[in-house]
From TrEMBL:
Residues 2-122 form the ERp29 N-terminal domain. Keywords: Endoplasmic reticulum. GO terms for cellular component: endoplasmic reticulum lumen. It comes from the Eukaryota. InterPro entries: ERp29 (IPR016855), ERp29_C (IPR011679), ERp29_C_sf (IPR036356), ERp29_N (IPR012883), Thioredoxin-like_sf (IPR036249). It comes from Florenciella parvula. This is Endoplasmic reticulum resident protein 29 C-terminal domain-containing protein. GO terms for biological process: protein secretion. Signal peptide: none annotated. Residues 126-221 form the Endoplasmic reticulum resident protein 29 C-terminal domain. Gene3D superfamilies: Endoplasmic reticulum resident protein 29, C-terminal domain, Glutaredoxin.
């Protein structure tokens, strides 16, 4: 899994159907900043379906010969002395959002993507990324909730029996789907409020961690 290399033909086509983080850089980049880019591209690629329609891409500028992609670098006002430059392209719009943080701070870049793409990349305690995506689908307008819940149940059933915590965490999503069906759309918000009150009490560290994990899972349904 890696990044898609774009040019003046492919960038306009893909931005119409995908949210994208685009890295404007040299044609043959190297060094610590490029290592950061490669690492985050791989991490996002490894998300698979949980990454939705999001793409990581780069536009390499050839500063000699045919000067490939010089037109795109000029169109988006890229300063060749400040490469790499990250921009977030929102699909179906003309909105382009600049990333202004450190270029070797992978966590900050990933947080920037999460904020604008609406996907979970970094795993929050208690959560399972592929089930976070199902949760988001479940609360979307016009969702086929029985089908989404059935898929979640199939995915939980596919786990091999083990002591691993992931199957237990995944099962929480199905329980919340059942509760939303029984108690209504406000259940995640109401349950979050209830748990937050309990966190204010005298609890063991393990119990607090458990409650915080449950709040994170509930947040996936917001």
């Amino acid at each position: 899994a890696g990044a898609v290399h774009l040019d003046s033909t492919t960038l306009p086509k893909l931005r119409a159907s995908h949210n994208m983080l685009v890295c404007f850089d040299k044609y043959i980049p190297y060094g610590g900043k490029h290592d950061t880019f490669k690492a985050l591209a791989k991490q996002i690629g490894d998300l698979g379906e949980a990454g939705g329609d999001f793409l990581v891409a780069w536009v390499g500028l050839q500063e000699y010969g045919d000067e490939l992609n010089k037109d795109l670098h000029e169109e988006y006002g890229i300063d060749s002395q400040k490469l790499p430059v990250y921009k977030f392209f929102k699909k179906d719009t003309q909105e382009v959002i600049d990333y202004k943080g450190a270029k070797t701070a992978k966590k900050k870049i990933l947080s920037f993507i999460e904020e604008h793409a609406g996907i979970y990349i970094t795993v929050r305690p208690g959560c399972v990324p592929k089930f976070d995506e199902l949760a988001k689908q479940y609360v979307a307008e016009g969702a086929d909730r029985p089908a989404i819940k059935a898929k979640a149940e199939e995915m939980v059933a596919a786990y091999k029996s083990s002591d691993d915590k992931e199957p237990q965490a995944a099962a929480q999503y199905i329980k919340i789907m059942d509760k939303i069906e029984a108690k209504g759309e406000n259940y995640p918000k109401e349950e979050t409020g209830r748990i937050e009150k309990l966190l204010g009490g005298s609890l063991s560290d393990a119990k607090k961690d458990d409650f915080r994990g449950r709040i994170n899972v509930l947040a996936s349904f917001s």
